[in-house]
Amino acid sequence: MRSFLKLMKSAPLSARIGMAALFINLFCAIFAPWIAPYEETEVVGNVWEPVMWAAGAVEHEKPVILGTDNIGRDMFSRLMYGARNTIALALVTTALSFSVGALCGFLAATLKGWVDMFLSRGVDILMAFPTLIFALVVLSVMGPTTTVLILVIALVDSTRVFRISRAVAMDIEVMEYVEAARLRGEGLWWVMREEILPNALPPLVAEFGLRFCFVFLFIAALSFLGLGLQPPLADWGSMVRENAGGISFGILTALIPAFSIAFLTVGVNLVVDWFLHKASGIKDV
Fold it and tell me: ∠ CA(263), CA(267), CA(270), 5° rounding?
């Protein structure tokens, strides 16, 4: 804890802002049931009510902090539950894509030969399809369930992780300490776990942050198109789509989840930029 506080003191203002954004979003996602005044699907008033005491919540008399949505649900409560659903889905998908992509990339760089050729050509085939169109086709055929959504996005995103992990591992794999480990008789998995992975962590951790942003925005885009998390689950992308019709009447409710998406994305990017700067070893002038 002391080392973390020391690190935060030395961090630039942009990194502190990014950390604050991450902390706020994670806090809302973890404690959503206790922060939200209403249930995720509870109708508390009329359609697109402004900030006020909900006319339909006579029993509890709780305030509608951000107004109501297109069917009268509390926007603040939906925003809190949406943080939990969207961030959790993006984290699980990013972790899965990284596990598959990094493992295949390390195997391709270490084994070379036909393994590298087979994996690399398979990745090239997947990357030849436009990402959004590929996801839309698969989700339309198999149905937009949460499991299919995670697997499709993880598969698409793992191709990018494969590329960078393979490139990093190929640079490490030719180092003398890796050759020394092989001469000692260490096996493939030991070399990958003890030699390649620790030295590849800085760029991979930074890439994880960037991939999380892309996955998060991709899920929001699919939800906006109606193929992400399905109703009645709250999701920031679907919340933008559901309330977009109010913009024609001067009701800016759709901008609330849109701002939340931008807020989290900018925060993650600020932290990733700082981490990359620290990992590069470049001194501040």
Answer: 140
